[in-house]
Specification:
The protein is mainly alpha-helical. The chain has two domains: about 110 residues, no CATH class; about 150 residues, GntR ligand-binding domain-like (Four Helix Bundle (Hemerythrin (Met), subunit A)). The protein has ten helices and eight strands. β2 and β3 form a beta hairpin.
Length: about 280
């Protein structure tokens, strides 16, 4: 059993561990056997066992770098200069490259055929498309996970949800992140279909974006009280009622998509495009 406020580490298909090293929510997963991690830390896509700590010199810089990129991405595509990033952070090119590689795994940046880095735009259309993908795939993955999620893990998830309902709205952001990860990352990771879970990796950037956009708005928009919706889904999973679990999750994701669109609109209306020294 893991303590309140912590979530398990995720793994990808190749067996590499995935978690929140120093900072996810935008977590990518598929497999199990996961040690405890902190949901307020960045995802790690490399197996850390036996590696020199120097290999992870990018981690202390990642949270702020990710936040800057997300808040810039909502204003459209932009060229990113790796050398300028290294100079801005006062780090070597290797560290800057590792940061970019990690951000690419999350879907925040991309690299073109000429090896140039670009910020991937995160506009209304992409939010809509990624939520549509989640609505198509996530309920199927959850249904395939029913019966495979340990009862004690469901107990812990339900306990955290009920505590959050009792404490709401005085629920720390890190705890809200944990609740999101419990259902949308950890439960889904038990799915018998690793191809679906792998495909869902493409959608995790909207979980990351939601966190940073809400923080930037300083909760001017009320925090989404999604706990009751999660409890309904978890109850159906407990009862091995796949049809009800799928239906409840589809409804939950549809509501979340609209709330995400509202937050994005509010952010665009109140914030200006940030000037970053490594963006051209």
């Amino acid at each position: 059993a893991r303590p309140h406020g912590q979530s398990p580490q995720r793994e990808i298909c190749g067996g590499d561990k995935v978690g929140h090293g120093q900072y996810s929510s935008c977590p990518f997963i598929t497999c199990r056997n996961r040690p405890t991690v902190n949901v307020t830390e960045p995802l790690q896509f490399e197996n850390q066992a036996g590696l020199n700590p120097k290999s992870f010199a990018w981690q202390p810089h990642y949270y702020e770098f990710e936040r800057e990129l997300i808040l810039r991405s909502v204003f459209g595509r932009a060229r990113l200069n790796e050398f300028a990033l290294a100079r801005h952070l006062d780090v070597g090119r290797t560290v800057a490259h590792d940061l970019l590689m990690h951000a690419r795994e999350v879907g925040i940046v991309s690299k073109d055929e000429r090896s140039r880095w670009w910020v991937v735009p995160l506009d209304e259309a992409r939010f809509r498309d990624l939520y549509e993908l989640r609505i198509l795939l996530e309920p199927v993955a959850l249904q395939a996970a029913i019966g495979r999620i340990p009862a004690e893990e469901l107990d812990e998830i339900e306990s955290r949800l009920k505590a959050a309902v009792s404490d709401f709205p005085q629920v720390p952001t890190a705890d809200l992140d944990t609740l999101e990860s419990d259902l949308h990352i950890d439960c889904i990771s038990y799915s018998q279909n690793p191809e679906i879970v792998e495909a869902l990796k493409r959608t995790r950037c909207i979980l990351v974006a939601g966190k940073h956009i809400q923080a930037a708005l300083k909760r001017d928009i009320a925090v989404d009280p999604f706990m009751e919706e999660h409890l309904e889904i978890v109850s159906a999973v407990r009862a091995h009622d796949g049809a009800s679990a799928k239906s409840a999750l589809v409804n939950h994701l549809a509501l979340s998509a609209q709330k995400a669109a509202d937050r994005l609109a509010a952010f665009r209306a109140t914030q200006s495009m940030p000037e970053l020294p490594y963006i051209q």
